[in-house]
Design goal:
By secondary structure, the protein is α+β, with helices and mostly antiparallel strands. The protein is built from ten helices and 13 strands.
Amino acid sequence: MSNQISRNFWKIFLTVVAICGNLYLPAPAFSQSDIGIEFKDKGQIVNSLSLSDLATVAPAVSLKVFEIHEKKERIYKAYPARALFDKAFSKQWGKAEEIVFISMDGYQASIPVTKFLSHDAYFAFAHDDNSPFTMTNILQNNEVVQLGPLYLIWDNMKSKVLLEDGASDMPYQVKSIELTTFATRFPNLPPPAKASAEIQHGFLLFRKHCMACHTINGEGGGKAPELNYPTSVVEYIKPEYLTRWIENPSSIRHNTLMRGLPLEIPNRTKVTKEIIAYLKAMSKAKRSPKRQDIH
C-alpha cells in the first residue's frame, strides 16, 4: 500500500512540475517584420503596416547620416518617408499641419509637415552591416537602446539646419504615426495669448527641444516627468540650477539619462533663458491633466 501511495505521489508531483515548467517557458520569439505600425489621422486609425508591408512600398536604400546620438557617421537601411506617407495616408498628408511619432519608450515627437516637405527623411529599419539594430546613445549617459521597429532619420550630411536641430526630431522605437493639428492635440501647452515675444519664442523652443520627453499640464511625451502640474519646476528649482539642468544635466545629477540642449545650436544661453521664461508663464496657467480646470 505504501509503495502504491509513493508511486502516486511522485506521479502527481512530476505532473505539477511539468505544468509549472510550461507556465514559465519564455514566450515564442517573433520577427520584427510582424510588428504593425499604426497610422492615424486625427486619432482615427486609417492603416496598419508591418515591416514586411513596408518593403513593398518603396525600395530600401543605404543612407549615410551623421548620427547625432553617437556623434559619428552611420549607414542605415531605410525607406523614404514621403513614399511611406503616400502609402499610409494618400498624398493628402502634405496638407496636414503636424505629424506625431509615438515611441515604445514614451517619447512623442511632434514635427511640422513643412519639415518633411523641405528635407529628405527616412525610416531606418536596420544597420547596413546587419549588426544588431541598437545604438549607444552618448546623449543619454551611453545608454544602449533598441532602435526598432522604425527609426526616423534625416539626410543631414550636408545640411547645417538639420545638424543644428539636434536629435529632437529623430525618434526611435516608432510604433505609431499620426496626422494632426497642434492646437487640437496639445491645447494646454501654448502660453497665454498675450504673452511676450520672449515667452512665445520660448514655447517654440520648448516644443522643439523638450516636449517629446516632458509634459506640461499633462500634454507632451511620456518618457520624463511632468514639469508644470501641480508644482512647476520653476517653483522648486533655483534659477541657476534650472539653467544648468537644461544645458548640462550631468553637472547636476550623475548618470542622468536626460540630455542637455544640443551643443550645435547657436545662442544656447539665450535659448535656455527663453525656455525658462515659458516655464514661468505656464506656472501661472496650470491645468489639471485629469479635470482640465484652470488654477
